[in-house]
Here is the input.
Amino acid sequence: MRKDITSIHLIGVCGVAMGSLAGMLRQRGYEVTGSDEAVYPPMSDMLAEWGIEVRRGYREEHVGSPDLVVVGNAISRGNAEVEYVLARRMPYRSMAQALRDFFLEGKEVVAVAGTHGKTTTTALLAHILVEAGLDPSFFVGGVPVNYGSNFRLGAGNHFIIEGDEYDSAFFEKVPKFVMYRPHQLVLTSLEFDHADIYRNLDEISLWFRRLVNLIPANGSIVYSAACPALRDAVSRSFAHRSAFGRADADFFCEDGGPDGEWSNLVLHVPGAAAIALRSRLFGEFNRANIAAAAGMALRLGVPTDALRRGVESFRGVRRRQELIYAREGFRIYEDFAHHPTAIAGVIAMMRERFPSSRLWAVYEPRSATSRRRVFQNELPGSFAGADRVLVKTPYKLEGIPEGERIDMAGVIGDINARGGSARLLSDAASIVESVFGELDRKEDNVLIIMSNGGFDGIYEKFRTAADGFFSVDPARR
Here is the structure.
């Protein structure tokens, strides 16, 4: 604990990263308060459990006189608390800076960055190190099911952290991952995203090259061989480099076939015998995630037996292909996918796992990029593996300049023109009604709901509707 600081206030405390940081600071013994306009579960419940007072709304009096203020990246100039802090020259940090100052100094920082797969890969790598007895700390953008929390503070030397490419704060327009100063690096993928802050792929790639340039010569980089932009980004690194994901890469997970709820894998490694693995994760993109995490774990000296235990006992991350409802002949999964590549990967995984089921893809365009025309042409093809596609009208489309807005009706038309079956619906209730209006109980049905937000409470709406649907005798419908 830093002796010069005892009290810390967080502006925007109910965000996933900010709330987790608040919990970590509280666990370290600091007096922590926070404020936010959107105070709701699960983060509000977690903050209360940690004994952190959350002040609703942004007001000068909510700040008080702490030793330090942490400003979330969703907070802008004009915010009453920010203006108060600036006017009184109070010490302040971004979330990324605070993580660095309070938790990363003195640790072996292992960052996982990339457009897709970084949350699952970070969580899996951390879990493997736990199984190896290395007692790591971690900070993840999702909740690993094994731990029920976004973070863990261990006594070991390693800190495994998800390296987000989004910017840190209004006063720090650089990606969060640059602030972490990692010693080891996993790069899962690199595509265009975050159209609200980046103009094109070249601009994002520049920051990835800068990240790579931070890795010391005695560090390691494990990167996706399937991504040309990453091969270029790592080409001039001084660190040891290993590729993963393709059959000709250093680390490659070969599909050994399904076994009920398990996926059998064969991990090929350089200069050694292949390693047989079992996992609860399915699909080609998850095999790449496993290869990435395993490759870095082996570079860190994790024994093969611990690697096997870690992969087999890893139960996934909430909101990543998470089963949220099940009964005979009907399952609902939830996923964070919103980029076309991620959508296509999730649908392919579901099709691989349930080849004979009727597959429903339910999608909400919510992110800054998915509400823009950036992927107008790519998006229709990403739904090719689904039998039925239901899309909600984009979230707060009025917040996007008119000339930049995605034409979702055009996307639906393209899906149908390619032989698909898609509809655009105005709200979550209409989507739920449409599903149960068409559902055939004689078929096996699998739904995958994809959104990076709350989707207007569609998850609970589906559970309630499903309970009602299946409680009625089919002969009476």
